[in-house]
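It is worth pausing here to work through a concrete case rather than discussing structure prediction in the abstract. The textbook approach is simple: state the sequence, then state the predicted structure, then interpret. We follow exactly that order.
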Amino acid sequence: MKTKILGLIVVCGITLFGCQKEDLKSIADEAKVNAKIDLANDDVSDIVENAYDATTTNGSGRGLESATSQSNLPACATVDRDPAFGTPVQVGQTVTKTIDFGTLGCPMSNGNVLRGKIIVTFVYQPTAPSQSINYQFVDFYHNDIKIVGNKNFTRTMPNGHPVVVMNMDLTATFPDGRVFTRVGSRTREIIAGYDTPNVLGDNVYQVTGSWTTTYPNLADQVSTITSPLIVKMSCASLSKPLIVEGVISFVRPSQTSTLDYGSGDCDNLAVFTINGNAYNIIIGNP
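Step two, the predicted structure:
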C-alpha cells in the first residue's frame, strides 16, 4: 500500500529501529491506540447494524429469522432474541438481542478476537423514517481491550440506503492497564453493496465524524476525520483490517498529527505523520 518512510516500520509489538527509539515508540503507540479503538468501533458498528437488519429484513410476520440469520457472525458466536426466534415480531414491539462471543475468544472473519456479550435493543418500526438502536457491553473484549459503556445508533434512510450516526461515550481498558475514554460521534453510510442484502462481502461504507479521546497523564486529543474513512467488508476474507482509506487528524494544544489509512488496498499498514516526519505502522494482523 505504501513505501517504507525513513526506513522505519512499527510491527505489532511496536519494535522500532533507529536512534530515536523511545520517542518514536511513544508516538507510534498513540497512533496504534487510536487505530485499535477505531477497529473496535467498526466491528461493533457492523455487528449491531446487522443485528437490526437480520430482524427487519427477514420476511413477512418476522417469524422467519433464526439464530443464524446474522451472517456476519462466526460460528463461535450465539444469538438469543426476545421475543424468541420463530415468534413473529409485531410493529411497536421491543426486540432485544444478546450476541454472545463466549469467554475464551471468538475470532471474527477479519482476524479480530471478541469475548463477552453485546446486547442490542430496538423497537420494531419498519416504516419509521428514523430508527434508534441501543446497545450495551457485558464483559466485552475486542482483541483483549475491554470496552465499557451504553451506546446508541440513529439510523435513517435519506437516499434509499441506511445512514447510521453512532454516539460514542466509551471507555477502553488496554491489557497493560491503561484506560482511555472517547466521546463524540461517527456517521457511517453504505456506498456500495446495499442492493445485495444477502451478500455482506461486497459492502463498502464511508465514515465521517469527530471525537475527543482522554489519555492517561496527557492532554485530551481531538480527532477529526478530514478525509472520509472507507471500510471494505471484502477485506475480512483476507483477515485484514476493514479500513482501507481515509485520513484522521489528531489535535492537542501543542501538537497536530495525522493517520492515513492509504488508497483502498486491503492491508494492515497506515502512515502516521507528526512534526513533518512520517512513519509506517502496522495496525492490525500481520
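Step three, interpretation. The CA atoms of residues 37 and 172 lie 8 Å apart. The chain has a mean pLDDT of 83.
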